[in-house]
């Protein structure tokens, strides 16, 4: 673990994070969901960075994850969600300023502010937008950024504004890995709570939490004695500068496989007649923008030239909105 700590210490300014965590104005909560991140969380956040041990939730690794589901989202990280003031009932006491969770193997993450949820799509965009200033590892600049196709276009806008190489890839970390190996990508993320950089070739939940702590430390470096710049402040400032991208995801589980395949085939067939699609859309909601393009996403890897076809059905709207349909089978390839 000492080698891991040295690696992280070379990426982040741990001195500024320690200063943030020691401020009486800043409160912190990390939920390991009884996965492997728990041991690392205590060593890094408590022993090295000075957070209170009471800041840790469910950080004793258990084979059955304590009977819970080790998925870092609003549904399964119930205890953290409640503590951060986002539960269905009133939270006891004032919620912490910053909250985070990791999944069972610590490669995915969820970021929360006081009574505020940061979508994975916004999270990677905000990390990229602030990386050069807030994270020493990126002080020389970003090589490029990438996102999975279903992730919102928030990162696209940051890339355009900062004149960065940008890549839209199929779901699957191997596509990011190719870009990183070729020196084309520094920061990347996907809609399912995975965020990472080219320090390793995998998503990294602990790294993402430290990236957010670095941004908070940078934003508060001159005003820890005054009003704290919060997670919500950072997100809203980002929206004011780059625009807001609304994102929602619906998972349909335990459905009839045959019926699901028929539905997907029908959605592909509909793309040959966008006028019919727009009639359906207008029938559901008359004020929705027109669909101007429909396809099945195909990715031509710029590194090895491989082509990945049928990576999700897309309907693209005139105002930039998108409707994406994907099958679980794609994630099992």
Overview of this structure, please?
With 333 residues, the protein is of the alpha/beta class. 38% of the residues lie in helices and 17% in strands. The chain is built from twelve helices and 14 strands. It has helices spanning 2-11, 14-22, 37-48, 78-83, 120-134, 154-162, 173-181, 205-219, 231-242, 257-270, 274-284, 328-331, and strands spanning 28-31, 56-57, 98-102, 109-113, 116-118, 144-148, 165-169, 187-190, 194-197, 291-296, 299-300, 307-308, 313-317, 322-325. The strands form four sheets. The chain has a five-stranded mixed β-sheet with strand order 2-1-3-4-5. A four-stranded mixed β-sheet has the order 7-6-8-9, with helices on both faces. Strand 13 (313-317) and strand 14 form a beta hairpin. 40% of the residues are buried. One of its GO terms (cellular component) is cytosol. This is phosphoglucomutase (alpha-D-glucose-1,6-bisphosphate-dependent).
Keywords:
single chain, alpha/beta, 5-stranded mixed β-sheet, 4-stranded mixed β-sheet, PGM, isomerase, EC 5.4.2.2
How many extended strands? 14
- Helical content class: 25-40%
Please compute the radius of gyration using only Cα atoms: 21 Å
Proportion of residues in β-strands: 15-25%
EC number: 5.4.2.2
Protein name: phosphoglucomutase (alpha-D-glucose-1,6-bisphosphate-dependent)
Catalytic activity: alpha-D-glucose 1-phosphate = alpha-D-glucose 6-phosphate
Cofactor: Mg(2+)
């Amino acid at each position: 673990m000492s080698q891991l700590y040295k690696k992280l210490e070379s990426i982040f300014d741990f001195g500024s994070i320690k200063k943030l965590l020691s401020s009486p104005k800043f409160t912190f909560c990390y939920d390991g969901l009884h996965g492997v991140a728990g041991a690392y969380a205590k060593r890094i956040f408590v022993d090295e960075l000075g957070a209170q041990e009471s800041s840790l939730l469910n950080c004793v690794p258990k084979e059955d994850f304590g009977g819970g589901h080790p998925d870092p989202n609003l549904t399964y990280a119930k205890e953290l969600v409640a503590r951060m003031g986002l539960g269905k009932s009133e939270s006891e006491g004032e919620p912490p300023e910053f909250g985070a969770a990791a999944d069972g193997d610590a490669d995915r993450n969820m970021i929360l502010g006081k009574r505020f949820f940061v979508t994975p799509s916004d999270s990677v965009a905000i990390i990229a937008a602030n990386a050069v200033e807030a994270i020493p590892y990126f002080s020389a600049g970003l090589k490029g950024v990438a996102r999975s196709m279903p992730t919102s276009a928030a990162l696209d806008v940051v890339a355009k504004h900062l004149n960065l190489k940008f890549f839209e890839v199929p779901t699957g970390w191997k596509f990011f890995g190719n870009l990183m190996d070729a020196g084309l990508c520094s920061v990347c993320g996907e809609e399912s709570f995975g965020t990472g950089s080219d320090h390793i070739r995998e998503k990294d939940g602990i790294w993402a939490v430290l990236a957010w702590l670095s941004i908070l430390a940078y934003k508060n470096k001159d005003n820890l004695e005054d009003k704290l710049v919060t997670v919500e402040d950072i997100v809203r400032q980002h929206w004011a500068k780059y625009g807001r991208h609304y994102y929602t995801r619906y998972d349909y589980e335990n459905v009839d496989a045959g019926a699901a395949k028929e539905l997907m085939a029908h959605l592909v067939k509909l793309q040959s007649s966008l006028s019919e699609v727009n009639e359906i859309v207008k029938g559901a909601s008359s004020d929705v923008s027109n669909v101007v393009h429909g396809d099945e996403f195909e990715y031509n890897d710029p590194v090895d030239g491989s082509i990945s076809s049928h990576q999700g059905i897309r309907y693209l709207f005139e105002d930039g909105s998108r409707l994406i349909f994907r099958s679980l089978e794609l994630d099992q390839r």
